[in-house]
Amino acid sequence: MLVFILRRLLSGVILIAVISFLAYVLLYAAGGDIPRRILGENATAETVAKKAEELGLDRPLLAQYWDWVTSIFTGDLGRSWFSGELVTVSVANRIAVTLSIVIGATLVSAIISVVVGVLAARRGGAIDGSVQVFSLIGFAIPGFLIALLLVLVFAINLGWFKATGYIPLTTSVSGWLSSVTLPIIALSIGAIAVVTQQVRGSVIDAMSRDYVRTLRSRGLSANSVVYRHVLRNAGGPALAVLAVQFIGLLGGSVIVEQVFAIPGMGQLSVRATTLGDIPVVMGLVIAFAVIVIIVNLLIDLAQAALNPKVRLS
Amino acid sequence: MIRWKKVASAAAIAAAAALIMTGCAGGGGTTDGGGGDSGRADRLTLTAIIGPTSYDIGAGAEYGNRSPFFQAVFDTLLQKNSKGEIEPWLATAWEYNEDNTVLTLTLRDDVTFTDGTPLDAAAVVGSLERFRDGTSPQAATLAGKEFAAVDDTTVTITQDAPDPSLVNLLSIAPGLIQAPSSFDDPDSATNPVGSGPYVLDTAASVTGTTYVYTANPDYWNPDVVKYDNLTINVIEDPTATLNALKAGEANGAKIVTNDTIPEIESSGWTIESNELDFQGLLLFDRAGTMAPELADVKVRQAINMAFDREALLQALQSGYGTVTEQVFPTTSVGYDDALDSTYAYDPDAAKELLADAGYPDGFTLNMMSTPAFQTTFDLVAQQLADIGITVNYTDPGASNFITDMLAPKYPATWMQLEQNPDWQLINFMIAPQATFNPFHSEDPKVNEYITTIQMGTEDEAAQATADLNAYLVDQAWFAPFFRVQGTFAVDANTNLEFWPTNAYPSIFGFSPKS
């Protein structure tokens, strides 16, 4: 087990190294005239050249990348070219915001999907039919449209939640809830649609298996069979789908954070990428990669815990 | 089952908490309550479309849409009032020598920076030098100037030749004074030390997104500070800005999409506006080195006649703005209303002019485009096609748009440009070395007018500015379409006197309605 975890972590580090290099090269290629973008149209050519020198952009790509790599080991990811903020501070501030929303949305969608999925699988008929229809609708409506509708109804008309901005949990619990609830709902709906279908399918599939018949013949109650045994078996595939959803939600948070003007990683990614703020983009690439690697590792461990037949090797 | 019950009850608690807190959900922007002294209101909440790049004035000092961030924490040497006139601020008096090469400023003696160090002549000199030698967008405006502290409250600025824009510059970014004690601190990019009306609360702020300020308790001019707290939220998405307004989460907001104005007004907000930018074609290659056709003034005039400016204003800005054919703003001494009807929309006359110039079948013009303004580019191409000019667009990519424009890689381009005060405008788009004169177009008459504006008396300069403006319209150096309305919305609790000469209002322009 320990060897497995260490191995995965090692491959994670190699992955990050490869991703960071590719990201750097791609950003550089797509960069264009970054000093001009920082300074705007009012600056003269001389000031623009001076800025390029100040940022080290007049040096070869590999030299710049090497400096970036070596400074990482001292914990220095540099400063944003567009806000002067330390990249480590920038990313750290925003991780909490994005994870609030993405973990919230993952939990909400996991809970609702399991309840509704099991219900649809066991009851069938009209319930199953309506679940299917709602899943389809939830899957088809784009996230930003749901977000806009939620703002209009629950923030502007009813005034129950904040329409824009983010209040940290440490500042105020109610404020935090008021700023994350709508984004979480907006982000969950698509995920619920997908995971519910997965749970429903897995449960139906498991219910027809021989072991279920055996369990039932031993006189176990239907609930006990479903919740103690079937779900355990159906849990594996559902968990895998949930992991993919989690990573997908990280991407989905980009739009939701824009709509709600929330200072998360998604919003920062869009801004930094369009501006060509290389230090910030690189910081985010590393942060996203680390999150994805950790999530995948945790899912593997959870799979193994759920189903001892899954070997960690 | 038990586990699910726990989850369900946790969810119920969360939902209940969400309902309990709803009472304070939209409370970000209240101006009620006369907290603090001198009848100040508690908090002013604004939205801006862009945050500061660096609070270090040597790296990022800027006005325009970034002005409120700098104005909150720093003072300028001089100040502009709501009519755009220059008034005393840190400097109580200013005077030129006879040939306008030395400006002497007298400073207040009762100002300290928020770290407790005194704001004296040495600090002012240090700050001006930092701006001049740094990489702020306007750094070049102080190039070649020397600063000296005569005594604790007297500073001189010496220059080789008169600079008619200098006094104005000292009321905007170049005139911002930062505490020299913070020069060597790398954190000054995000943690400014100035003498301004507010202090940035770095713990409550999120760089790039939310800037929270508290009133400076030791401010030398407390009467102008109308709020105990100031919050500026950077919201880039126009829909989110609109949502913040409608949910009552801001007292004032910069509006970039003018077609939302009717919706904002119907929600009870007041619109304040000015006109700073013009949109139109910049006919750069006036000597015809890249596009020989543009060397002929008749061709440039024909291009001016090709545009139905009213229709363009309606189509592109929902009518918010004013059509114009000159690049000088209405606030300029050189502005002349009559010039705006020099080139009436007349495609047939334009075709005749082209034929006179030797292009009866028209020609092809290479210009640049960018997807964000596709409608504009389509309309421009269509109107030019109507007089026989075929536009061949290249998209250099948004990030290279200005670089390629100034390289220069195209003989003409569509652009939205700032209409600065006269001398700045001349050095921005007309003078031989101006940034937006990338082909370095020169004309003896233009040079003569520029010299008079720089060296002449006030009256001579005003006349020369008017003559220059008329000459540029006659010579069709540009083909302006319209001035764009700059829009700011304020809620029912807030008064605003909008600056006529900046994209964002002065933070001193806001006051609570009693």
TrEMBL record, chain A:
InterPro entries: BPD_transp_1_N (IPR045621), MetI-like (IPR000515), MetI-like_sf (IPR035906). The keyword DNA damage does not apply. SUPFAM superfamilies: MetI-like. The chain crosses the membrane at residues 9-30, 95-121, 133-156, 176-195, 238-260, 280-299. Residues 95-303 form the ABC transmembrane type-1 domain. The keyword Transmembrane applies. It comes from the Bacteria. Gene3D superfamilies: MetI-like. It is found in: Cell membrane. Keywords: Cell membrane, Membrane, Transmembrane, Transmembrane helix, Transport. It is a multi-pass membrane protein. Pfam families: BPD_transp_1 (PF00528), BPD_transp_1_N (PF19300). Belongs to the binding-protein-dependent transport system permease family. This is ABC transporter permease. It comes from Microbacterium pumilum.
TrEMBL record, chain B:
Keywords: Signal. Residues 1-25 form the signal peptide. Coiled coil: none annotated. Gene3D superfamilies: Dipeptide-binding Protein, Domain 3, Periplasmic binding protein-like II. Residues 85-419 form the Solute-binding protein family domain. This is ABC transporter substrate-binding protein. It comes from Microbacterium pumilum. The lineage of its organism: Bacteria, Bacillati, Actinomycetota, Actinomycetes, Micrococcales.
